[in-house]
Design brief:
- This protein has four helices and 23 strands.
- With 390 residues, the chain is mainly β.
- The strands form six sheets. Strands 1, 2, 3, 4 and 5 form a five-stranded antiparallel beta sheet that branches. Strands 14-15-16-17-18 form a five-stranded mixed beta sheet. Strands 19, 20, 21, 22 and 23 form a five-stranded antiparallel beta sheet that branches.
- It starts with 44 loop residues before the first helix and ends with a strand.
- The N terminus is likely disordered.
């Protein structure tokens, strides 16, 4: 469930930084490149000179040539120190997308460091507009200051991701109040993961406002996160209602069915915890799909979805998985359709009250709704009896 870190260019903005292509080479008339610097350090020539010097050093380091002088779009004070945003026209205007959008400039935030201003990740600006560029940056050693550039569009901000008891996502958004070209927000420390979220209105994945320097937080030292094991199991009898083995096709739930469990405007990685899919059929003949969502180092959430044959899936139950437990998943389905249990590599059996133990197969099983206990025998032969709770 890793959300894409690199921004993709989408629709042109309604207002704010308007970009125009005058035929031939892209001609730009916009606050991004032509209007006076904004921010409370716009008149501080000493700081602006430092920013330009840092930008030029970065160009020399990258061996890149751009046209004319860099334009400081915004420069201002923050609790982490002075910061800025710079845009610089390109010499050439290469095509940047299949839609024919052309690169017209490079842009980046400039953050404060002990050694002076430092240019963060630079990005291409195209004549399609500003939606595709990262419009925010995290500053300070704790990454607890968030600067959001004002590009003339309403932006919603959420400081933290929470989960409801059943695992659904809970976020509280508020309108960002811009002042003189930007907003400076105090946020919880973002050193190991990104809990904040930014979006243009309405809040959605397509309207997400990207944070330019989230990459080093999500991937420290440029290292990839551990790849989570993907566990897929098809329960006995499922092929009849699924018309074949869905695990072989790697069937997943549609995003709209999981909307309450997806962080639509956040960016996340995985800690390598397993991702589980279980395919089955309920006693009343509906398709059963169990899917896992896991963000950063947060607990994995297991969601059960049901669908009458040929109709859409609907999430009906959810819980948190505990992969350290002998029985990591216990999830009761509605309408007395059973209890879904899962323990990778283990043999499973169940009983009702004080009755005889009944074999239930390996890895995952859908137990009768009145099952009271599960016996888990792991790969090493250790046996654990786990009560089935409501």
């Amino acid at each position: 469930m890793l959300a894409v870190v690199c921004a993709a260019v989408v629709a042109a903005p309604v207002g704010g930084l308007q970009l125009a292509n005058g035929g031939g080479a892209a001609q730009v008339a916009s606050p991004l490149l032509d209007e006076p610097t904004r921010g409370d350090l716009a008149g501080d020539e000493g700081y602006l000179r430092q920013v330009r010097d840092a930008w030029q050093r970065r160009l020399k380091q990258d061996g890149e040539q751009l046209r004319g002088e860099p334009h400081i779009v915004w420069a201002g004070r923050t609790p982490a120190g002075p910061a800025a945003y710079v845009a610089h026209r390109t010499v050439h205007n290469p095509v940047a997308s299949s839609e024919g959008d052309r690169v017209i400039a490079m842009a980046a935030f400039v953050e404060p460091t002990a050694d002076g201003p430092r240019v963060t990740t630079r990005e291409q600006v195209t004549d399609a507009g500003t939606d595709g560029i990262s419009q925010a940056a995290l500053l300070g050693p704790q990454r607890d200051v968030l600067v959001v550039l004002d590009v003339g569009q309403p932006v919603e901000f959420s400081p933290e991701l929470r989960y409801l008891p059943d695992g659904r996502v809970s976020r509280s958004f508020q309108r960002v109040a811009f002042r003189d070209g930007a907003a400076v927000l105090a946020v919880p420390p973002q050193r190991t993961k990104i809990s904040v979220a930014l979006s243009r209105t309405p809040v959605s994945r397509d309207n997400m406002v990207h944070i330019s320097n989230d990459g080093p937080i999500l991937f420290p030292e440029g290292k990839e996160r551990p790849r989570p094991p993907q566990l897929r199991h098809t329960l006995p009898g499922a092929e009849k209602v699924w018309t074949g083995d869905p695990s072989a096709k790697k069937v997943g739930a549609p995003a709209e069915a999981l909307a309450d469990y997806i962080d639509s405007a956040g960016v996340h990685t995985s800690d390598g915890s397993p991702l589980l899919w279980v395919y089955g059929a309920t006693p009343d003949g509906r398709l059963l799909l169990v899917e896992t969502i896991q963000y950063d180092d947060d607990p994995a959430r297991v969601i059960a979805l049901l669908a009458p044959r040929y109709l859409a899936f609907k999430a009906v139950a959810s819980t948190f998985a505990d992969w350290r437990s002998p029985l990591p998943v216990r999830l009761r389905l509605p309408d007395n359709q059973g209890v879904l249990v899962a323990a990778e590599g283990a043999a499973l059996s169940y009983r009702i009250g004080k009755g005889q133990w009944q074999e239930a197969g390996r890895n995952a099983a859908l137990l009768p709704a009145d099952a009271t206990d599960v016996r888990v025998t792991d790969a090493g032969g250790t046996v654990t009896t786990v009560p089935v709770t409501s």
